[in-house]
Amino acid sequence: MRVGIICFQQESNTFLQRPTTLADFKRDILITRADIRKEYAHAHHEVGGFFQGLEENHINAIPLVAAWTVPGGTITDECYSMILSMIQTQLMSAGVLDGLLVAPHGAAVSEVHRDMDGHWISMVRQQVGLNMPIVSTLDLHANVSQRMIDAVNATIAYRTNPHLDQRQRGIDAANLLARTLRKEIRPTQAAAFPRVSINIERQLTDQPPCSELLAMADAQLTRGAIANSCVLGFPYADVAEMGSSFIAVTDNDPALARKLADELAGYVVEHRTDFLPELISIDRALDAAMDSVGPVTLLDIGDNIGGGSPGDGTYLLRAMYGRKITSAFVSLFDPESVQLAAATGIGNSARFSLGGKTSPALHGEPLVCNCSIQSLHLGQFTEDQPRHGGRRNYDMGTTAILRVDVASDVHPGIREGATKHPGLIVQVTSRRIPPFSLNQLISCGLDPKSFHILVAKGVHAPAAAYKPISQKLIRVNTPGVTTADPTILKYEHRRKPLFPFEVIEESGIRDLMARRQEKEAL
Questions:
Q1: Integer-rounded Cα radius of gyration of the chain
Q2: Which of 89, 103, 289, 357 has the lowest tally of Cβ within 10 angstroms?
């Protein structure tokens, strides 16, 4: 048997002014056929799991298209149309296929199609017909639409955040499709969409409140679910589907699938206040960091590159500079500073304007200061361990390591025995790079454990890499387009009412479940 593989992934932050273009995909990943196997077969990504699962089931994998780029703004219509055309062309030329494995992100938005993933998967379904089985994976941060559910036979979302289970979910999807092709099962699925948006700061899956929710989902796997998913949602895409959703897949039992999905949704409605965030200010975070043995990782929520933010926010950098902290590391997307560093030369000093170039009103003004150039690098590195995003190969572009002149001794607030790296070190990169791997530092000759404070521009995703070497992780409510308080963002398209933006009543989901149970009984 022959099964096609399609991957088209981007997480779209609609609050960004800069759109995502075809050039962004070409810069990152826009490949077909054999190049997909080369890029993904050994990666900790669901597409790698597709290859492994199909091989273990003695099914030929037919990779068709893989398109991925770093989270960013809304995808242009030109870009979307070009990649959709690539998918349709590759499907047309693939020969006879027995099934499809598809990997959307689930939170992609284009200028024309706000439910972009629902649209392209529906176009694939229309092209291959109703009889071909299709199994889809989804990111845990998807904003799921009924259209996505209707276009495929089964859906499996990541179960962990940070996303360390992507390859396993790909294997699960391949196994489910293989069992379908062998006519061992007939998947049916249902999705529930409670009017609850789960705050990004609460979306750590191995800690309450999400751990209790997932324990409930695990228990359903012994009660007839052959797969289920707790999709926590992506609050920075202003779409009608924004919010949490729950999916249950059963073997030819749509009523049970509906019941199980509603149970998970009802739990979140009942416990919705547990999913409200703890908002920690910059000053409070720095006080706690300076009073702790290092390393301490500060997670810069407002400038979360994994949520589409520019990556050049300066609020934490400026605060540390103001406090004359001289044992800290920050990475900034700042091509202009890279060019100045290269022109100045290693060992020399210059006056820099660090960061704050993309949207200073949102993410802070540049820090103007003297810096010495410590080193220059090509900016390429690999990561062999399972990390958020499942990627192995990274490219920061030309990268410079700068030592900021803060004209101070080590800050007196650092406790005795704490790490004392000599300097406030800023890494400036030519390309936006999410902080998913410590090799981002190590490849530039830096020892992460030598710093008292490490700033990682993310929420939970960096924890897979940073937690093992950190004495403490502190999530900081910095300003920015990925703010920990989405209630301050101006939405135009989200559903209403939606908690915590509006008040909702528990009776709504309970009445819905009661009506469905009564209908099933009749």
A1: 23
A2: 89
pLDDT of residue 426: 98
Q: Would you tell me how many other CB atoms lie within 10 Å of the CB of residue 131?
A: 5
Inform me whether the pLDDT recorded for 310 exceeds 70.
yes
Amino acid letter, residue 108 = A
Average the pLDDT over 150-171 and give the result.
Answer: 97
- Please, which pLDDT band fits residue 521 given cuts at 50, 70 and 90? low
Mean pLDDT confidence for 324-353: 97
Distance CA 118, CA 109 (A): 10
| Contact predicate 357/312, CB 8 Å | yes
ω into 295 cis (within 30 of 0): yes
| Calpha distance 490→192 (Å, rounded) | 26
Q: 3-state class of 455 per DSSP?
A: strand
| Whole-structure pTM value | 0.92
Q: How far apart are CA 169 and CA 499, in angstroms?
A: 29
Strands 187-192 and 423-429: unpaired
> What's phi and psi for 394, nearest 5 deg?
-125, 150
| Paired tokens of 374 | 């410590």
Rounded to the nearest integer, the mean pLDDT of the chain is: 94
pLDDT confidence of 390, banded at 50, 70, 90?
confident
Q: Which two tokens stand for residue 290?
A: 């300076």
Question: Inter-axis angle of helices 116-128 and 77-92, to 10 degrees?
Answer: 20
pLDDT band at 62 (very low <50, low <70, confident <90, very high): very high
Sheet strands side by side (includes 29-32):
29-32, 60-68, 2-9, 99-104, 134-138, 154-157
Among residues 103, 107, 126, which one has the least CA distance to residue 116?
107
pLDDT in tens, 64-121: 999 999 999 999 999 999 999 999 999 999 999 999 999 999 999 999 999 999 999 9
List the Cα angle 486/490/494 in 5-degree steps.
Answer: 80
**Smallest Cα–Cα separation from 139: which of 124, 172, 161?**
161
Would you state the structure tokens that stand for residue 153, as one six-digit string? 């036979």
Q: Residue 272: helix, strand or coil by DSSP?
A: helix
- Say whether 42 sits in a helix, a strand or coil: coil
334 contacts 328 by C-beta, under 8 angstroms: no
